[in-house]
Amino acid sequence: DLSEELGGGRSAPRSAKIALFLTGIDRATDKTQRILDALSWAEEDLPVEAFEQADSVRETLSPRLIGELEQIAASPDHAQESDYVLHLHAIALLAQWREPRAFAPLLELLRLPGETLDALFGDYLSVVIGRALASVCGGDHDAIRALARDPEVDTYAREAALEALVVCAFEGDLDREALVAELLELAGREI
Length: 191
Description:
This protein is an all-alpha fold. The protein has helices at about 1-5, 15-40, 50-55, 60-75, 85-95, 105-110, 115-120, 125, 130-135, 140-150, 155-170, 175-185. Helix 9 packs across helix 11 (about 155-170). The model is unreliable at about 1-10 and about 15-25 (pLDDT under 50).
């Protein structure tokens, strides 16, 4: 046991307690990095163990995943490598955790050009992103509406925004009747 090695316990000197604390941080950081490494590249099998362990380092992993989304939104080139998938796994985990700090970078990603979105997400855009957006929005439906109504945004990204609104209505976070009226109004003109 590391605390015994350092003379831990109540009588341990302050420097030993600090060393023990820092060692715990290093171990969490190492585990976080191992999880990030496992989630970064596509393999034949889904990295189930990494997903299962992610919850145990959520506090250190969340900012790293959010940072990855922010970095890709600013400069998506590195994420367009064919087997790179960290951003996809990041979105899945952050949505599972309903992490509202992921909302702004996800919105920024969805404003990228269509060709870039296709390279980054492929079918993930039309299958997963709408639900993920709803999970992390923290009730900011107006920002989702703005994305859905913006004619400069890629059609599939706008559809994901509309799906997010529908998910919010089904979850009871948005008035269903008002959304139906809004969708009918949108359908009456070119979105």
